[in-house]
Amino acid sequence: MGEELSDRRSNAPSAPQPEAEHADVRLRRVVADLAEELRPGRSGAIRVRLGSLLDRDLGFDSLARAELLARIERAFEVRLAASVLAQADTVGDLLKAVLAAGPGVTAPPVSEIRLPAGEGVDAAPSEARTLLGALDWHARRSPNRIHVVLCEESGEERPLTYGALASEAKMLAAGLQQRGLAAGDHVAVMLPTGIDFLRSFFGVLYAGGAPVPIYPPVRASRIEEHLRRQAAILDNAQATMLITAPELRTTAAMLKHFVPSLRCIETPRRLAIAGAAPTPVDVSPGSYALLQYTSGSTGSPKGVILTHANLLANIRAMAEALEADSSDVFVSWLPLYHDMGLIGAWLGSLYCAMPFVLMSPLSFLTRPESWLRAIDRHRATLTASPNFAFELCVSKIDESKLEGLDLSSLRVAMNGAEPIIPETLRRFAARFSEYGFRPEAMTPVYGLAENSVGLAFPTLGRGPLVDRVKRAALVELGRAESAPPDGASALECVACGRPLRGHDLRIVDSNGRELGERREGRLEFRGPSATSGYFRNEEATRELRRGEWYESGDLAYTVGGEVYITARTKDLIIRAGRNVYPQELEAAAGDIEGVRKGCVAVFGSQDRVTGTERIVVVAETRETGEEEQARLRRRIEAAAASILDAPPDDIVLAPPRTVPKTSSGKIRRNAARELYESGGLAAGAPALWRQLARLGAKAFFWKAQRVLRSVWEAAYGIYCWLVLALLLLAAAPLLTLLTDLPRRFGLARRTARLALKLMGVPMETSGVDGLPPSGVILAANHSSYLDGLILVAALPGEAAFVAKNELAAAPFVGWLLRCLDTLFVERVDAEGGVGAGRRAVEAARAGKRLLFFPEGTFTRAEGLLEFRLGAFLTAAEAGLPVVPIIVRGTRSMLRDEQWLPRPGKLSVEAGAPLAADGSDFSAAVRLRDRVRAKILEGCGEPDRAGERVVFRRAGVERVDASEEE
Question: Which domain holds residue 778?
Answer without folding.
Answer: 732-964
